[in-house]
Amino acid sequence: MKKPLLLCSVLALLLFACKKGSKDTPPPTDEKKYAVTFNVSDFSQDYGPLESAKQKKGLKLNADSSSTERLVYQLFKEGGTGFIAYKNLLRGDAGFGTFSEQLTPGNYIAAFVGSSKYLQNSGDKKTFTYLGPWGEIFTKRVSFTVSSAPVNTSVQLDRVNNQLVLNIEDAIPADVKKIEFSYTDNFALNVTASGNGFTNANTRTVTVYVTSAEVGKTNYKIAVNTCYNAASTVTIRYFKNDPNVPYGIKTVPNVIRKTNYRTTVSGKLFTPGNAGFTVDLDDTWDEPVNGEF
């Protein structure tokens, strides 16, 4: 009776050893890294009427003619909450317009932001917030897969701002000291692994102090870039001797703004009476759609 019992004990020990060995041996994985390169360059820039629809979302990044001063790049693992890489390059920095990584196989998301002005970020390395006032803002998100070969991709950024122009048709009087132009704008752009979005809508006011050279000018223009894409009220104030109390106020409701459009608000600010302002919505800085409010 002892021999069969001993044999069963030996077999049980061997079976346990086999199971333990198989648990301790990890399955083979492919840890090889592959080169991934994004080329963000050679786009056309527009700041005025466009010659073709093909140009409407381009941003020129070559050193001679671009107004782009900063490019921000973020790399996320798809489905993840954190970031893998973050680069913030100024014009003149080595590699401006080109971003390279060595990545293991998997699915990733790359996010890009370009701007003609300084961009602040929250610095928490999870959510990146860009605070206005805005210059030209261009973004792009690219989902890609690394399998068993290098990846080389050209990226064209899309403009996400619009432009709002105030055109004061009547002559600026000699006793006007300053003009205030107030409008609704989003104050932040959040870029995360799950997506991009503008937030923190509030009133932004641009103040222009009138110089002696500007007195008497007609069709005086104030242009701002905004990132608010809806109808809102625009308020224009002008001041004379008292810098804190407006001498006159004009309010224009339902001023429509859309991404990549220029909206022009035109009218007489200083002329007595109730003459209204007109609103011109310019499709991609090109074909206008007129409306009077």
Helix run count = 1
Structural class: mainly beta
Q: Between the first and last Cα atoms, what is the distance in angstroms?
A: 105 Å
Q: For the report, how would you describe the main beta sheet?
A: 5 strands, antiparallel
What is the averaged pLDDT score? 77
Rg calc:
29 Å
Strand order of the largest sheet: 3-2-5-7-9
Coarse shape: elongated
Strand residue content: over 45%
Q: Helices and strands, in N-to-C order?
A: HEEEEEEEEEEEEEEEEEE
Low-confidence stretches: 2-28, 42-66, 286-293
Keywords: Signal
Protein name: Fimbrillin family protein
Signal peptide: 1-22
Detailed description of the structure:
The chain has one helix at 2-24, and strands at 34-39, 70-77, 83-90, 98-103, 106-115, 128-131, 137-146, 151-154, 158-159, 162-168, 178-191, 196-209, 220-226, 232-239, 248-255, 262-267, 278-282, 288-292. The N and C termini lie far apart (105 Å). The protein is built from 1 helix and 18 strands. The strands form 4 sheets. The protein has a 5-stranded antiparallel β-sheet, with no helix packed on it. Strands 6, 11, 12, 14 and 15 form a 5-stranded antiparallel β-sheet that branches. A 5-stranded mixed β-sheet has the order 13-10-16-17-18, with no helix packed on it. It is mainly beta and 293 residues long. Residues 1-22 form the signal peptide. This is Fimbrillin family protein. Keywords: Signal.
Topology:
Layout: H1 2-24, E1 34-39, E2 70-77, E3 83-90, E4 98-103, E5 106-115, E6 128-131, E7 137-146, E8 151-154, E9 158-159, E10 162-168, E11 178-191, E12 196-209, E13 220-226, E14 232-239, E15 248-255, E16 262-267, E17 278-282, E18 288-292
Parallel strand pairs: 1-8, 10-16
Antiparallel strand pairs: 1-4, 2-3, 2-5, 5-7, 6-11, 7-9, 10-13, 11-12, 11-14, 14-15, 16-17, 17-18
